Amino acid sequence: MTNGWSLDDGAAAKGQFYGVVPIFLVDDVGAAAEYYRDVLGFEVEFLYGDDPTYGRVTRDDAIIDFARSDPPGARNSVKASGSTFGADAVIVVSNVEDVYVEIQEKGANVIERLAPREYGALDCMIEDLNGYRLTIGGDLEDDDDDDP
Q1: C-alpha to C-alpha distance for 18 and 20, rounded to whole angstroms
Q2: Residues 41, 3: Cα–Cα separation, whole Å
Q3: What does the pLDDT look like over 64-116, one tens digit per residue?
Q4: Domain 23-143: which topology?
């Protein structure tokens, strides 16, 4: 069982989805990759071109891609849509409290502090240098060992 959804329904799987890679439009692909490396602890997997037009960062099983926006300033984000609610990506982590401290110490722009949510998660929200909103969290039960 994963996040409340059972993958074992007794039927033979015809195909398995195992990941989603968001592609964030940014003006400076290299600067975006550096931010994710320096502030969020990702590794830069690749940058395409001397003046990068595309790139990828990874941390464990999390993957985020960046593409140069055309025209400059174009964003495919929740914030750019005018919405005041929602995230552009949700990154599920273990030991979310440790990750929260780590990214705060590295200067992440926390826009929602780490807190337990009514939907059973312990999460926070940050906004990156391009205005993309990331929810970073984990299962409330995994991080709360004080329950009887």
Answers
A1: 7
A2: 24
A3: 999 999 999 999 999 999 888 899 999 999 999 999 999 999 999 999 999 99
A4: 2,3-Dihydroxybiphenyl 1,2-Dioxygenase; domain 1 (3.10.180)
